[in-house]
Amino acid sequence: MAEQRETLDVSDISLLYPDADSLRRHMLGEEAGRLSQITAEQLELYFLMDLKSCDFGSFYTCDPEVILYRQQTFEDLTNHPELARILLKMIPLLNDITELRRMGSDSAQSTEAYLYSITEVELYTTLLDLLRDELLPLAPELKSEAFMRFAERINTLTGSDYYRNLNAELKALTSRVREIKSVTIGVNLDSQLRADRAGVLAINNEPFKSGELLDKMLRLDFKNDDKTCIAPLVPFKKGQSDNQQMALQNAFNGAIGDVFRSSVRSWKKVIQHYVLENTDFLIRMMPEIEFVTKATELLVKLKERGCPLCHPEIRPISEKAFDAKGLCNPIVAMKLDTPVVPNDFTFDEQGMIYVLTGPNRGGKSVITCAVGIAFVMAQLGLPVCADSCVISPCDEIFTHFPTGSEDTIDKGRLGEECSRLSAIFEEVDEDSLVLLDESLSSTGSFEGAYIAAEVLEGFSMVKCRGIFSTHLHDLAASVDRINESTLQKGGVRIDNLVAAIEKGSRSFKILRERPDGKSYARDIADKYGLSIDKIMQKVQRK
Fold it and tell me: Which of 428, 502, 439 is nearest to 469 (CA)?
């Protein structure tokens, strides 16, 4: 019998991880899947979402159970747009709590620490009141495990006697602090009327009044009482050096701190034993909250642009399944005002690796990136841009795209490309996805096709899934020869894809067929008037 997974503790509620084990592995950086920053950049993922407190690799996973848990989370978010708005309201409150903790850490027993603690509890109760008033009414309609757990936790916290008592005590404490307007200072004098001892006699809820005649006339009050100043103690903060002002301020703070010392100690215990415990899980959720709210915003924009969205069927990693109908590239959908041309794409026993050829700007790079982005979105738990999709997650996505900043001084551009390809072979395995776009284009077609054939044979023996988008038509012609060599040694089959040309124009449709380089050239030549017939027509008109 399989070992039962540890139940997720209520204090560790997560929007993205279903149990304590998966959350622990995430917090410790032990995720089975990996998405590098360079891959995220080359797939232009940051165009889709501008993340501040996390990145795409933070939540990339190849655990099917985690992915399914997230799909439910995003289902609730898309069905109830108000959920994202509630989460967004949480962020400034959580940021303020985090900042207060930082500010109060250096003044453990000071008056400032006391005030910071009171403010933190105020923020905490404001946050819980927000969730009680806005999240809990939605609870009966929520279906995801994540939001049901979250609502249950908030209901437990806000419904407890402790929470009600905390609110009552907080109200009394804040009234006590905020009503302080002045202090009464007592000073003992020696026989020569010099200050001997000084201290705080009382804390008042009214400010003292000036005793000067002009001030009395302005306020139309000529009576003197125990709050009327008969003579200023010093010209406060006027003509004093910074050190003198600091010394006087420290003296007042120290005296007031002594008054509140017992309150500070007792109140800090409340913070440490209750508030810290019940805000830590919310603060830990901040990167998750940013990710799910921005991802939901992206899904809304894609839907508005008519981009198809579906939750993929998740299959075991070992099946290496990928079958997308009507697949679109969301980057293109966001950039263009015209409808995106959808394509079907499949990895199967007849083709785990593809050589994709066709004309420049014919859609080769678009579909290559679309496949990579579909894996990323699926493994983040998001819907993918397709009519339907079946997918086995991959443990890592390797990209080899033109970077525009190759280290060509020492190696040359070809050497740099080969170096990056060699580095991929050091890490790639059969559960990986490899996307190559115009690799080895920096050399002649003969040399490029020769090296590319060796690379393809290597990926076939690794048994990974991959796409090699290229202008090297000689490479496409060598697919049968490569298969003959690798299949008998246990490699996976390589197949051809072509970016279609229809009547001399790019259709942006990707077809699973053998390429015909001559027909592409003939169509393009005819379109631009460079076929021999059209050239002769121009020459004869002279």
Answer: 439
Give, in order, the Cα–Cα distances in Å from 267 to each of 172, 191, 436.
12, 43, 60
Q: Are 381 and 496 in contact (CB under 8 A)?
A: no
Higher local confidence (pLDDT), 514 or 528: 514
Residue 30 is given by DSSP the state: -
Q: Give residue 391's pLDDT band: very low, low, confident or very high (50, 70, 90).
A: very high
Put the strands of the sheet holding 343-347 in their side by side order. 313-314, 388-391, 322-327, 343-347
- Domain 309-540 -> CATH class: alpha beta
Residue ranges per structural domain of the chain: 10-178+279-293, 309-540
Predicted TM-score (pTM) of this structure? 0.80
What letter would DSSP give residue 499? E
pLDDT score for 85: 96
Produce one character per residue of 131-162: b if its CB has 16 or more CB atoms within 10 Å, e if not. bbeebeeeeeebebbbbebbbebbeebbeeee
Residues whose CB is less than 8 angstroms from the CB of residue 466 and which lie 6 or more positions away in sequence, other chains included: 352, 353, 354, 433, 434, 435, 436, 459
Please report which residue ranges of 105-239 form alpha helices under DSSP H. Answer: 111-134, 145-158, 161-178, 213-219
Report the alpha-carbon distance of residue 422 to residue 400 in Å, rounded.
11
Tell me how crowded residue 312 is: count the other CB atoms within 10 A of its CB: 26
Q: Are 358 and 515 in contact (CB under 8 A)?
A: yes
Helices (H), 237-284: 242-270, 276-284
- Is the separation of the CB atoms in 464 and 436 below 8 Å? no
